């Protein structure tokens, strides 16, 4: 009976109940019917106290910063810069697509936001240049998988709160894996484009002068992610304060430098921020409430003991966890999988000496790959809906990218020094 709420969560989720309400419903049913020893006011007090977390302030600030940057023309400046750098390569516009997602990690922090934006911005242009629609959609969805791994990805903040690790360290740990994912996809793009004869978007490589001219125009957009990391490393601000600094920076750049941010955009920006923040924070609060039930019944400890009885080899354990996350990622939306599984798996891997920051990156890369696979891949549905690409055609084109990302996942899993290099400096 102690495990009944876990079953209820999955039943409600697969009945199309949003994950936050599924978690609330399962936990409330437990404390109402199965364990009446906890006074009701203490249970609901737990819900309220889970919102009283200073790192949570990073979420609305970074969501607002991403929204402001889209209205301020930052995305357009980044795309022009990536085209100057990569446009001359085989499959130039597809390469631009991958690199833009990497740079957008510091702007949107959301795979679905990046996938939606590039579906509207780049897929029609790729079709005009002779790329197949299904291939264009596959590149867009796959490249967006690297976006949440690059700071300030919202999943990095969520995992840090769930696992009680430093948000700053999670930010630092995301860079190398994100770049590795992008490089693996660029190799696939080059191979497929050469085989199919996809032409570059530029006839020849940009001259040094052209690169410098575009860099001068795009420098304020490029400074955003680097400025955040420099400020965090030098102790100028915390991750939450970095979000506030980012909002002010974006407003100043949008109003006084690019001059594309208008007063009439204030209400759309506020709406996007409120909607984005409320949905994310509601899930976090529900997860914290569900975690209270898990700890009350000592379920993480039971699962830890069971898994450790199976194997105490950390390499084998990580392989089992990867397989588990990949399978569940096909059925659970990425954020839901992270919120449900992280509290259960973190105690297991830490017992075997795996750094929880390293494990967080493994989890996030895993669930991003799950976002590309049926039946519930969120990026897959987002891109296919916007571009009107049949799912069957999409999957035929996306599987080479999934293979490349799996190779990147294995490197991230078994070469922890790559992930922990920046956090340990």
Automatic annotation (TrEMBL):
InterPro entries: DctM (IPR010656), TRAP_DctM (IPR004681). Keywords: Cell inner membrane, Cell membrane, Membrane, Transmembrane, Transmembrane helix. The keyword Cell membrane applies. Residues 6-418 form the TRAP C4-dicarboxylate transport system permease DctM subunit domain. It comes from the Bacteria. It holds the Pfam family DctM. It is found in: Cell inner membrane. The chain crosses the membrane at residues 6-33, 54-74, 94-113, 134-162, 174-192, 242-261, 273-295, 315-345, 357-378, 398-422. The keyword RNA-binding does not apply. It is a multi-pass membrane protein. PANTHER family: 2,3-DIKETO-L-GULONATE TRAP TRANSPORTER LARGE PERMEASE PROTEIN YIAN (PTHR33362:SF4), SIALIC ACID TRAP TRANSPORTER PERMEASE PROTEIN SIAT-RELATED (PTHR33362). This is TRAP transporter, DctM subunit.
